[in-house]
Amino acid sequence: MRITITIILSILTFSCVFGQNCKYLRKVKWHMKQLENEEIIKITKPKTLFDKFYKTAATHFVKTSNGYLMGLHLRRSHSAKFEILDDNPLIIQFENGKILMLYPRSFTEGRFIGLSLTYFIVPFYKITEEDLEVLVSNKIENIRIYFTSDKVSPSNRIEDDLGTYFQYDILSEKYKSNCMIPANCIVQN
Amino acid sequence: MKSSPVTKIFLVVILITTSGSPIFSQSTDSKRSYKRGKVYLHDRSILTVKNLSIDKSSLSFDYQNQSKKINYALDDIKMVRVASGNYAGRGALIGGGTMLLASLRALSEIQRNPYLTTKDNAGEIIAGFIVGGSLMGALIGMAFPKWKTIFPSNNETSRHKRPGISTGLSASQNYVGLKFCLNF
After folding, report:
1. Where exactly are the transmembrane stretches of this chain (chain B) (predicted)?
2. Which residues contact A100 (CB under 8 A, 6 or more apart)?
3. From first to last of its 189 residues, what are the pLDDT tens digits of chain A?
4. Is B16 exposed, middle or buried (0-12, 13-18, 19+ CB in 10 A)?
5. CA distances for A78 relative to A53, A55, A122, B126, angstroms
6. Which residue of A has its CA nearest to B147?
7. Does any CB of chain A come closer than 8 Å to the CB of residue B112?
8. A149 at the B interface (CB within 8 A)?
């Protein structure tokens, strides 16, 4: 009897752990306006990319009838307004030195939410199956979010040939690999 | 068949309307003017401009107290956004709503506490709070303009989505017809 119960409990625990791997959103949220005209096949739940008290970001992946997208939910408290134009890339640098450059699907502007003037913006970047494979097998070291703004002060931004950007280093080991499972889930049938 | 004077006047009015509406719509589509705008250039710089005019191929605007208007061909521009309205309405709703909730909370507290009573003019005070909150919210909301992208514009999409009325006239040797179309 004991053995039977142990086996049942083991199977249940095992299936729960594996079942949690791929988590999907059931519907498009209010801040994902850009997806309104898309035929969505599946959307993974957002996973934290970094959390630096007043600057946080989460990523998730979307499979549409036109291909894949990577959504970036970026919150910056006490931030000036900025926009992400279709030529403002997102550069992801991995621990092994690999670099991934993604371009936004369209022009994106954010909005201020809450009383602390938190600026919230959700750009969607075009991503290929090959890019997703790189995300599945590599840990992220830092990201550069390129943007366009006449409000963000020069002390809060860095510039190079590609434009103006914010750079965030991913320090937590847990967050470094947070894209791996959702990226794998979105390419699975 | 002889038509009455009323019918004639009615037909003249319809003809003026049908010929006038295309002319009016053409004039509004050719050149548009806006008080405030932002011009995004290909070199990633943004110009905050005033008195912006845009037509099918170019735009002109006042920039930083320069005496002459600055002209650009649309090919040299990445994007144009203009201030179109503000958040006064939303601000008034949030401000008034917050005051209403605070007043309701105070009223429920008074009802629960036997040592507290409402004043005779409590209704007026609450109304004053709500109006004050709405005004305050509207004032704050007015400081935040709504921005609308006017270039590049998705003409195909906007044409199909824009509600309106269009009319037309067709004639031959045997008949005269009027077309009336409602887009919604």
Report:
1. 125-144
2. A91, A92, A94, A131, A134, A135
3. 666 766 666 655 555 444 557 889 888 777 777 888 888 899 999 999 999 878 899 999 999 999 999 999 999 988 888 999 999 999 999 999 999 999 999 999 998 887 778 999 999 999 999 999 999 999 999 999 999 998 888 888 898 999 999 999 999 999 999 999 999 999 987
4. exposed
5. 12, 9, 17, 33
6. A109
7. no
8. yes
Cα distance between residue A51 and residue B47, in whole Å = 33
CB contact under 8 A, A150 and B149: no
Asked if A163's CB is within 8 angstroms of B44's CB, the reply is: yes
Cα A113 from chain centroid?
Answer: 19
User: Closest by alpha carbon to A91, among A35, A42, A147?
Assistant: A147
Which of A107, A112, A150 lies closest to B46 in CB terms? A150
Q: Would you say the ipTM is above 0.90?
A: no
Residue A135, strand partner residues: none
Strand partners, B179: B168
Instruction: Give the CA dihedral B144, B146, B150, B152, nearest 10 degrees.
Output: 90
Q: Is B46 on the interface with A (CB under 8 A)?
A: yes
- Please answer yes or no on whether A107 and B79 come within 8 Å at the CB atom: yes
pTM of the complete model beyond 0.90: no
| Residues on chain A touching B87 (C-beta within 8 angstroms) | none
Taking the C-alpha atoms of residue B49 and residue B36, their distance in angstroms, rounded to an integer, is 6
